[in-house]
Amino acid sequence: MCDDLPAPESAEDRLIGRHFRPLARDPGAFGLLDDAAVLTPRPGFDLVLKIDPIIAGVHFFPDDPPDAIARKALRVNLSDLAAKGADPAGFLLALALPDGITDDWIAAFADALGADADHYRCPLLGGDTDRTPGPLTVSIVAFGMVAHGAMVRRNGAKVGDRVLVSGTIGDAALGLAVRRAAAGGPLDALETAAREHLLARYQIPAPRTALAGALRAAASAAMDISDGLVGDLAKLCRASGVSAEIEVAQVPLSDAGRSALQAEPGLIGAVLTGGDDYEILCTVAGERVEAFHAAAGAAGVPVKEIGRIIAGSGAPCFRDAAGMRLAFERPSFSHF
Question: CATH top-level class for 162-319?
Fold first, then answer.
């Protein structure tokens, strides 16, 4: 005769139930009690898919706080969806946790992840947790919705289009430089507010999800800037079969970024190639630029024109204030 006892839960089930089941509020997540989730696209819509994992020691510092890691993990994926003109619809989460990760750490991670999921209207739909000898790895698969055929691709730039970027460029790369700066060096002398701004921009990006509608309406091509403006523009131009001319003086910088460059002018290369900006790079036909500016302004996202698309197959040309072409030893961040 069998005892009428409940089936025991594994430690993994308890971890998921305690920290992540409360985030899975979409009906298609089934409370994380099944092996898969269901996401039903609306008629006339396409599902946009994106995965962009982050790894300790590569994309963030191992001693970064758990809330910052959680927010970065989700936001880097939302940035890609925004660049495609897609609205967030949900995400899957896979965690590889090394020894030393405590329940309090996971609770702080889950709280921040849930807050961002609510803010960006991108619910958790499912995932997996694993133990690893290291390093800590957070993998998110994000889903977005866009009207059928309306996704903004890389390959649509045309000769004569204007090149625009959102926000400010280079803050994250400068934040990384500040984090690594030697005591007593030029960056170490920056004012506290400037240092904190640059460090925050590296640690927690701000995805431009509010710009998705403006991109769908006006952009001929777009992508987010994750590997640096120089390298990502080269990718966009290569996909579109064109080239570009960029005026470096027009590239928007934050006040903190300008202060860092005044302290160490040689960092201009890092500003343009360093990556982790998670701003939007796009091309817009001349007759649509004014409307794009208006739509971006209404969405609360600053955008600025920095150059134009030209004929050719060569790498985009970045010119300084004197008209001289800049050369970059490492045009783009690359893992390999």
Answer: alpha beta
Cα–Cα distances in angstroms (integers) from residue 96 to residues 21, 61, 147, in the given order: 18, 16, 35
195-200 long-range contacts (CB < 8 A, ≥24 apart) are 195/256, 197/171, 197/254, 197/256, 198/171, 198/172, 198/174, 198/256, 198/257, 198/260, 199/175, 200/175
Q: What does the pLDDT read at residue 1?
A: 45
| pLDDT for the residue 3 | 55
Query: Is 201 strand, coil or helix?
Result: helix
CATH superfamily of 12-147: PurM-like, N-terminal domain (3.30.1330.10)
Whole-model pTM: value is: 0.89
Round the CA-based radius of gyration of the chain to a whole number and report it.
22
Report the alpha-carbon angle 47-287-273, nearest 5: 65
Residue range 135-181, pLDDT digits in tens: 999 999 999 999 999 999 999 999 999 999 999 999 999 999 998 87
